[in-house]
Amino acid sequence: MQRKLGYYFQTSLIFVLAATATVALFFLIYFMIKESYPAFITVGKEIFTSTNWYPTSYEAEYGMLAMIVGTFLLTLFSSLIVLPLGYFIALYLHTYASSWEKNIIKSGVELLSGVPSVIIGAFILMYISPILIYFDIWSTENFLLASTGLIFLSLPYAVSLMTEAMDAVDRSLEESSLALGATKFITTFKITTRASISGLFNGAVLTVNRIIGETMVVLLVGGGAAMIPRSLFDPVRPLTAVIASEMGEVELGSMHYHSLFAAGAILLGISIVLTCISRKLTRRWSI
Amino acid sequence: MKQIFILVLIVFSILSFSKTLVIKGSNTVFPIAQLWIEKFKKMYPDVEVTLEGAGSSTGIAALFNGTADIANSSRWLKEKELKKMSEKGKYFIPIVVGYDGIAIIVNQELNINEISLEILSKIYTGKIRYWNQVNPNLPKKRITVYSRNTASGTYETFEKKVLNNLKMAPWVRLVESTQFEIESVAKNPYAIAYVGVGYVTEKVKVLKIGGVLPTKSNILTGKYPISRPLFMFIDATKGYPESGVIKNYITFALSKEGQELVEKAGYVAAYGF
């Protein structure tokens, strides 16, 4: 009797906690939509087609194209470096590294992933950005620096997630491949990767989401000019930076306020789309 | 037991008798208000003061909501706000607490001492992009243009007085703090920025506008073209507060001591000359 009661108590506790979390999540999304709705209705497609962001001018304009493009380019550029690099580091850690080597590198990586982004941003701002003046670059905070900061921040994340995914693969699978005469590299590259593809994809998507959502670094070293970057040395102002920079000073309930929420909704949308794509790919490719 | 009871009673009486004063608004007025509050708390130890510097518009919006007692503002009310005031049947009164000039700063190494409003406007709207277009003696380098971000009162004043409501070029770099502008101009020889005179340091060079430097008397007399009064707004819908915390605070701010603190914060006192 008592055991049964305990069981009911535990399951209902878990249920209540899970339900609270789900409801909270839905409320969050509802809140985002509710607050951004007026901007989408009033401003309309100008948000996506115009690069003029003058939310407090006499004739206010709310074009976010430059920031959306900035977010995309920054994410794309950083991901293209982080994901392959992270994969190969994970491959090395999984296959070639001896156990003590693995230990050292892993704890190093974990330590690195704990560094607050504001520290990395400030470091780049104070020590790397002044160097750029000698190279005749007109904007000392720019796309390249922002991307460097993002790579620093997300690489440890990618490495530890991908290593975990690879380590979870059954040993016997790899051993049989090696027994058939495949080299270590081929085994990891073809067999382990294939077997852990869903974990790898998840890791990749989480990393990309992290890059998109990262705020502090892009705010500090991105340059803060809402122009579409044409070179690596142009300043960039992604959506997150806009929200962080202006949310504190915005007049509550104004169109400016709603359009900042619209920026948040766009970010949320991008992240949901990415997650869906990863799920689909995972299902198709997994064994 | 009795002691605990008395202790609770004391705590309660302190809590219920302490008065609160909530001040919100302009980042420009913030350093002044900070100095005032330090002194004010010493004079009235039972008053709880909270100060939040977020931007003039935020302060005035808070005054409408009733979430602030005093709104600091570095600009006059906007048309929109005046309209809202009459719609809601509210009446805000302005109190001038000091004056501020917006200084145009460049790097110490840049060989330029004076600029005109017209050229300044062209730089910020993007018609001029290289320093040699300003003056052929200057190097052919791209100008790095800095501005405060859009919610700042300094930005709004600059937009109105210099740009005549034209829009800034997209490559103008909007930054979060005045301090950052100064640091950037100090390290980048081809940068230009505008900041409240209170923030100017030795690290940067202040430009004359039409031959006029933003000195105290030039700002007060209005000779310097980009200057402005700084306000506190209070809600006087039910009449001017004749006694109480708000009244005490305002009286202190306008007193000789209060006005000296305005100067200490780097601005120009409005009274007591």
What is the count of helical runs of chain A?
Answer: 12
**DSSP strand content of chain B:** 15-25%
Helicity range of the residues of chain A? Answer: over 70%
Rounded to the nearest angstrom, the distance between the terminal CA atoms of chain A is 44 Å
- Parts with pLDDT < 50 across at least 5 consecutive residues of chain A: none
Count all strands of chain B and give the number.
12
Q: Strand-and-helix sequence of chain B, N→C?
A: HEHEHEHEEHHEHEHEEEHEHHE
**What is the percent of helical residues of chain B?**
25-40%
Low-confidence stretches of chain B: none
Show the largest interface: A-B, 36 and 34 residues
Which term fits the overall shape of chain A?
globular
List key phrases describing it.
heterodimer; A: 287 residues; mainly alpha; 12 helices; globular; B: 273 residues; alpha/beta; 10-stranded mixed β-sheet; two-stranded parallel ribbon; 12 strands
Structure commentary:
The complex is a heterodimer of chains A (287) and B (273). By secondary structure, chain A is mainly α. Chain A has helices spanning 2-43, 46-49, 65-95, 99-113, 117-128, 143-167, 171-179, 184-195, 197-213, 216-221, 239-246, 255-285; strands at 53-54, 61-62. Chain A has a two-stranded antiparallel sheet. In chain A, strand 1 (53-54) and strand 2 (61-62) form a beta hairpin. In chain A, helix 11 packs antiparallel against helix 12 (255-285). Chain A starts with a helix and ends with a helix. Chain B is an alpha/beta fold and 273 residues long. Chain B has helices at 2-17, 30-43, 56-65, 79-88, 117-125, 131-134, 153-161, 178-187, 216-220, 245-254, 256-264; strands at 19-25, 47-53, 70-73, 92-107, 114-115, 144-148, 173-175, 191-196, 204-206, 208-209, 227-235, 268-269. In chain B, the strands form two sheets. In chain B, strands 1, 2, 3, 4, 6, 7, 8, 9, 11 and 12 form a ten-stranded mixed sheet that branches. In chain B, strands 5-10 form a two-stranded parallel sheet. The N and C termini of chain B lie far apart (60 Å). The mean pLDDT of chain B is 86. The A-B interface holds A 51-58, 61, 66, 130, 133, 136, 138-141, 219, 223-227, 234-235, 237, 245-246, 248-254, 256 and B 27, 54-55, 57-58, 60-61, 65, 141-144, 149-152, 155-156, 159, 165, 167-168, 170-176, 184, 187-190.
